[in-house]
Write a structure and sequence with these properties.
This protein is mainly α. The chain has one domain (about 5-150, about 210-230): Creatininase (Rossmann fold). The chain has helices spanning about 10-15, 40-50, 80-95, 115-125, 140-150, 180-185, 190-195, 210-230; strands spanning about 20-25, 100-105, 130-135, 175, 205. The strands form two sheets. A three-stranded parallel beta sheet has the order 1-2-3, with helices on both faces. Helix 4 (about 115-125) links the parallel strand 2 and strand 3 (about 130-135). Helix 5 (about 140-150) packs antiparallel against helix 8 (about 210-230). The longest helix has 20 residues, at about 210-230. The radius of gyration is 18 Å and the shape is globular. The mean pLDDT is about 95.
Length: about 230
């Protein structure tokens, strides 16, 4: 249930009967031939599809995250850690004031993962709150399904190429891209990283059959739904 379809009175009543909510977080960054908004598109969609049968509200996706390594690619927007933590802190406080005590943060971008420490700090100040950080694409069942489909899966490769992240009229390259020098990339500046990486795909083929992708998506939605519905104190 997207909050865009609710008014404040309905939200107040919702929080009173069920204090769960979902906050998707993503990123705006290079994804080779896919949309710059791939991470935010996927995080918001998997959260909305997972939460809909449960009647749990899903807030608009936070479209910007931490992407310093891709700063040399036009269109990439990166927040500093201090900025990102401050923004998330304000959002969490707003959700808390609105009556929500069980919050699932559905993350679509690996670079956002360091905020786990900040979430723990925030929970230390809110004894009656609970928060789950759910990295949807690497949750155990979803990641297993990805690896069963093709172990050569990486950033901006086939594993992020869904009908809703693909750009019309932009064909994907044929063949399999060799693995980039990821170890070297980790120790150089963004300009050199772009020289090493090229189009942005880390390694693997660029596109697989939609039937395979939808099978992965079904697992991801179910696993995200389980994170929202289960294992709360």
């Amino acid at each position: 249930m997207r909050v865009a379809a609710m008014n404040w009175m309905e939200m107040e009543a919702q929080a009173a009967r069920d204090d769960r909510c979902v906050l998707p977080i993503g990123s705006t960054e290079q994804h080779a031939y896919l949309s710059l908004c791939t991470d935010m598109i996927l995080a918001e969609r998997v959260a909305a599809e997972a939460a809909e049968p449960l009647g749990v509200p899903v807030f608009p996706v936070l479209p910007y995250g931490m992407v310093p390594g891709f700063a040399a690619y036009p269109g990439t927007v990166s927040l500093r850690m201090t900025t990102y933590a401050a923004v998330l802190g304000d959002i969490l406080e707003s959700l808390y004031r609105g009556g929500f005590r069980r919050i699932v943060v559905v993350n679509g971008h690996g670079g956002n993962s360091p905020v786990a420490g900040f979430f723990t700090e925030w929970l230390g100040q809110r004894a009656d709150a609970q928060l789950k950080l759910h990295d949807w694409w690497r949750a155990p069942l979803t990641l297993e399904k990805v690896r069963q489909t093709d172990p050569e899966a990486s950033h901006a490769s086939w594993m992020e190429n869904f009908p809703w992240t693909r750009l019309p009229g932009r064909p994907q390259p044929e063949g399999i891209k060799p693995r980039a020098a990821l170890e070297r990339m980790a120790r150089v500046n963004p300009a050199i990283r772009r020289e090493i990486l090229g189009d942005g795909n880390f390694h693997g083929c660029y596109q697989r059959e939609d039937a395979e992708m939808l099978a992965i998506w079904d697992v991801a939605v179910a696993e995200t739904r389980a994170a929202i519905s289960g294992d709360w104190d």
